[in-house]
Amino acid sequence: MIDSSFTIGITGNIATGKSVIRHMLANAGLFGLDADSIANRMLYPGTQSYQQVLDAFGPEIKTEQGQISNKKLGQIVFNDQRALEKLEALVHPEVIKTIFNRIQAAGQPVVSIEAIKLIESGLSNHCDKIWVSYASFDHQMRRLRSSRALTDQEAKARINSQPPQIDKFAHADVIINTETTFKETWIRTQRALNDTIQSINDFAPLHINISKDWFGTSVNTVPATQLERAWKELTRQSLTDLYECLGSKMVLALSKNEHIQAFVLWESWNFSGTLNRVFPGEFFEAQPALVFDAFEKHAQFHQVEILLVAQKILEAGEIRPEQFAFDLQLPAQITYPAWQIAAQKAVCNTPTSIWQKVLAQPFESINAA
Ligand SMILES: CC(C)(COP(=O)(O)OP(=O)(O)OC[C@H]1O[C@@H](n2cnc3c(N)ncnc32)[C@H](O)[C@@H]1O)[C@@H](O)C(=O)NCCC(=O)NCCS
Ligand SMILES: Nc1ncnc2c1ncn2[C@@H]1O[C@H](COP(=O)(O)OP(=O)(O)OP(=O)(O)O)[C@@H](O)[C@H]1O
User: Fold this and answer.
1) Above pLDDT 70, what percent of the chain?
2) Which end of the chain, N or C, is less surrounded by CB atoms within 10 Å?
């Protein structure tokens, strides 16, 4: 237990599917944290670890703007086990403290934490269940080559720098093989979740009241056949897309009269929320207030600090986010690094303005102050 939350710890080696499983649990209504994102925030100027890491690794890991360069630091620590251990010793205590604080703030009966070093950092001692993702070396290599654009040599070095996957199995309550389809990974994740929550009395599916008639729910609250039918009708996309989305995006079903009428898809990254698609497009045109409200409430549940909407998402151009308290800004003007990176990704790194709405100040900098 962390605070009074039943905690599922997700771990596994690189590219074995941890993040996909965390997203799938989030789409089943669970609040979840990614230790990697939190660790990254610990390196931003102003935090306690920032100065300690600079003292330990020297000013040559700084960028011209005075930030710690992940790339430079990564080149050092991923090629030197002792250096990685030194970095972890500085960062992990702060990461664990933040995870505890965030879980306490969320106040949810069941939560998940994804961490590559769940066991080694001691976090697993606070988890009620440990889930381990698995994919073979060949799958890891293929995934790193395609989605991370690493060379064979780089991918091999990353994989081989981690302990064998079998070491993690010894700690696992659940092992999820992710080598087949996204649908199969979804089914395995839901099955393991159902087994896990059977004993938890106060677990209730996510239900967001938006207005008198409308509510948002997590997609696992409707039977699979009904969900698949609604997806095909409303999105005109394939079922493969549905299950891939469930592993990479937040998918909120908007319902009225017990029927799904729309899907709001957004990307959750490092406590930012970027609106991705609304299906059907005409629904967004007709009911922008409802969509923005649902997006904000769902994002708040996940402790999102900034909402982002790129102009290209606004379909026919009739939707005016300023009416819903969004401001237009250039990504470069956003000063908090994680928010700026998310905004840059949302506009595909073009120097275009983006709509933003700040919901909360970064938790880590508040705690560091
Ligand atoms: C070295 C850093 C700065 C590199 O940052 P960068 O943004 O380039 O990479 P990112 O954090 O996204 O990690 C890339 C991949 O490396 C692997 N990785 C990250 N941290 C570790 C680690 N401590 N041990 C082994 N592998 C790791 C993961 O598979 C991850 O997907 C960063 O990874 C870091 O600070 N790591 C140490 C903190 C840590 O232990 N994080 C994990 C928390 S459980
Ligand atoms: N059936 C599947 N289930 C899960 N992932 C799959 C599946 N098929 C393909 N993949 C791909 O495998 C990759 C798994 O990546 P993911 O980011 O979840 O791994 P990870 O363990 O979190 O890696 P890292 O340690 O680098 O953060 C993704 O690129 C995903 O698209």
Assistant:
1) 98
2) C
